[in-house]
Amino acid sequence: xxxxxxxxxxxxxxxxxxxxxxxxxxxxxxxxxxxxxxxxxxxxxxxxxxxxxxxxxxxxxxxxxxxxxxxxxxxxxxxxxxxxxxxxxxxxxxxxxxxxxxxxxxxxxxxxxxxxxxxxxxxxxxxxxxxxxxxxxxxxxxxxxxxxxxxxxxxxxxxxxxxxxxxxxxxxxxxxxxxxxxxxxxxxxxxxxxxxxxxxxxxxxxxxxxxxxxxxxxxxxxxxxxxxxxxxxxxxxxxxxxxxxxxxxxxxxxxxxxxxxxxxxxxxxxxxxxxxxxxxxxxxxxxxxxxxxxxxxxxxxxxxxxxxxxxxxxxxxxxxxxxxxxxxxxxxxxxxxxxxxxxxxxxxxxxxxxxxxxxxxxxxxxxxxxxxxxxxxxxxxxxxxxxxxxxxxxxxxxxxxxxxxxxxxxxxxxxxxxxxxxxxxxxxxxxxxxxxxxxxxxxxxxxxxxxx
Amino acid sequence: xxxxxxxxxxxxxxxxxxxxxxxxxxxxxxxxxxxxxxxxxxxxxxxxxxxxxxxxxxxxxxxxxxxxxxxxxxxxxxxxxxxxxxxxxxxxxxxxxxxxxxxxxxxxxxxxxxxxxxxxxxxxxxxxxxxxxxxxxxxxxxxxxxxxxxxxxxxxxxxxxxxxxxxxxxxxxxxxxxxxxxxxxxxxxxxxxxxxxxxxxxxxxxxxxxxxxxxxxxxxxxxxxxxxxxxxxxxxxxxxxxxxxxxxxxxxxxxxxxxxxxxxxxxxxxxxxxxxxxxxxxxxxxxxxxxxxxxxxxxxxxxxxxxxxxxxxxxxxxxxxxxxxxxxxxxxxxxxxxxxxxxxxxxxxxxxxxxxxxxxxxxxxxxxxxxxxxxxxxxxxxxxxxxxxxxxxxxxxxxxxxxxxxxxxxxxxxxxxxxxxxxxxxxxxxxxxxxxxxxxxxxxxxxxxxxxxxxxxxxxxxxxxxxxxxxxxxxxxxxxxxxxxxxxxxxxxxxxxxxxxxxxxxxxxxxxxxxxxxxxxxxxxxxxxxxxxxxxxxxxxxxxxxxxxxxxxxxxx
Lengths: 452, 557
Known about the structure:
The structure holds two protein chains of two kinds. By secondary structure, chain A is an alpha/beta fold. Chain A has helices at residues 2-14, 111-118, 128-136, 180-188, 204-218, 220-224, 229-252, 279-298, 323-329, 340-361, 419-428; strands at 51-57, 91-95, 145-148, 167-169, 172-173, 304-310, 364-365, 368-369, 374-379, 395-398, 409-412. Chain B has helices spanning 3-15, 19-31, 45-56, 76-79, 87-104, 110-113, 126-141, 147-164, 169-180, 182-185, 205-217, 223-230, 237-248, 253-264, 285-305, 323-329, 358-363, 372-383, 411-419, 422-435, 470-479, 481-496, 502-518, 523-531, and strands at 41-42, 118-120, 123-124, 186-187, 191-193, 201-203, 318-321, 340-343, 450-451, 454-455, 460-462, 465-467, 538-539. Chain B is built from 24 helices and 13 strands. Chain B is globular, with a radius of gyration of 26 Å. Chain B starts with a helix and ends in an 18-residue tail after the last strand. Residues 1-31, 398-402 and 547-557 of chain B have low confidence and may be disordered. Chain B has three domains: 1-37 and 189-206 and 214-250 and 501-541, no CATH class; 41-187, no CATH class; 260-479, no CATH class. Chains A and B meet through strand 5, helix 5, helix 7 and helix 9 of A and helix 5, helix 8, helix 9 and helix 10 of B.
């Protein structure tokens, strides 16, 4: 409604000076160019927006190989995490936390991820990224963006082909875009306005498009008549999505404030074998995608991004087994004390976590980097994939959330529910939320030591 | 004229049901009343593409469309009735809408598709534009636009003309709007009181036309069907039978049958299927397309061209090959481009119909090796409609041996080691003994006699029937009663877009399945029985409880 009113006003303002004419008059900013405290977004970086992101890898990490011995700030990175050294002060390691089934079936490779992201092992509650994007997503063209480096056959049986944990409810999933080219087109294609361009020329077609959408809204009443509750909810979801489209148009009709950190990426080359389960091809694609995501954040196209690296269905070229099959079938090497071939994949996971962090950290923004102005939750879905365990699920936080969180810590919360992380994140992102999760995982205890 | 007599005349000899079967069918249609809940399905990408091709012609290009991800009761078509449109999906639909609208109104297409004269420069006759929108709106929404919708579209056209100018800006905006609307993106069913029994609800004429058309042709209703819906003649038995007949005899029935089997066999899984190019260099993307087409061609040939027994799909030796597939099967194919009919010899171990075809064995495998467990599970779930319990979350794989262990060279040996674990035995017994029958086929679909130098023993057991080879497994599946009831249930659920109601489970077994058996397990009479049953069009105002159509967990032998 808000957007429609704004458009109505703007239509009056702009009518007449349109028809392709260059408009450089200053128009009133939308809320989207104000940060959550209402201050105008300045190019000095003082009040840059805080972004939220998730980064998922499947199949956990071998227990005992990733948790530092010491807790607090004075920990030593274990071998498997050595690769994180350059970011030691920008991350927090979270160990020991568990997902509780509360009598529900352990849907392998699924329940644990739902517990981390939604605070339950069922499919009813929204994931934390959608809660956050619901609160801050209206500021930008896209409420949230989802990408997936993999197009493998997912390890979990649920939502095959979605490559995403971003779930509003069981009927509405924000699927991960698997093509860098398509993702580029969606963000930086014809409809992208460079915030740093000298001239702003709003596209008159956007106006026509807006009225085309408003005609749909007008027919809503006629459609709900015979609907049952479930279908009504589906239709509501449709109209939520429609408002999001209208919102995108509203944002595009405004001249964006300049953002020095925003640089247009080159059109990406679609990697060969982009849709294979080949681990090398996936790593290559991941690097391209996280760069695009970082620039989408720097250009303030969205403030919430979800990155899906792999569910664990990857395979080394020529190998007959995938990482997932190996977790179950490879014997523990008695000398090493862990599964050697599985461990090779785990090292790749951590390397790619670093690739993502580098992409964010490589963008200078204000007095810091994009990573400093972000909060990233990196998580997996099992503790020990070999046994499908739901305790000691590995999680990391990265970025300082614009100074709202402390980093450089190892927090060991043995036996606590994973929901403490979700609650901490929401509070760090400025949401006034007192508890998170369902059943025995419901918690009102954030990690206060992390919140500034 | 009685319904039965008329039907016989229309059907002709080829497809005529016996008189008793025909009575059976009419009776069965009346054994239960009440129907199921209203169903509102999101269009699948294929239905979207086919609708656009039917309405605007096949040369309109359509970009990527979001797929249905939610498989329910074994079918995406049922999942489509529980799927909404999240923002990223609507963005894709909106972008497809803009692109289609731009093409329909471009200089290449406008005169043929719209045909409104320009009465002056940059202006077309508004009443002609109005007529076009009302006509095309009826095709897109599968019913006429209501007055309010027409008004809204006129407003859209006016705004676009003033914002953009140009003669076709209004129509382009209207098309964009309608193609993005839920009225188009969802199949929107509505009801009316049943004239015979006004206490009960039935699908109204347009919804009836829609259900029929998507089931039989996997596309939007054509003009003729919409016309009889508009006059409400579609609600008479004579007209309904006439339309059913027309559609069942059309070559377009192939599209519907294809869509059903693609869904039932889970061919969407090919989207994320990859085979290691160093191990299986013959299994390229083109081959992945060919293996699906091979199976679909076998199905269409068996069930439509030959009007044969559904169960023969698991025993037939006839198929079609391309030169690329010839390389997989080790068969010389002369035609470099096209499809060539091919028959495996009676003693060829690859004569287990679609079971031994590359589409089945490759889809249900690991990328680098075969999987008797996955194949057994697929037979249970997709072909017998039985649910296999999920592996226990805390399963201990300690004793599963390494594939490089020289003592366990074949899958049978490795699985035996694993499945003797008491915890694992239960489930693996449901799957492995079936899947082991297909071990002569590697993950790339090729025939092999040995794995890692050890001779493969393809014997196994399906529900108490021992078999020694894939061909005998095919025979066992052919003779398994669950094979038949599974197909009947799946086709019905596909047709109505939902799981069975409690009442329907008995009707399916006692009536629909019996009729199917009497008709020699032929698909077309089954489809006819479904669409001419009362159940197909009756709607229960309060949705009755839906039972899970997946059969009970298979008990241990």
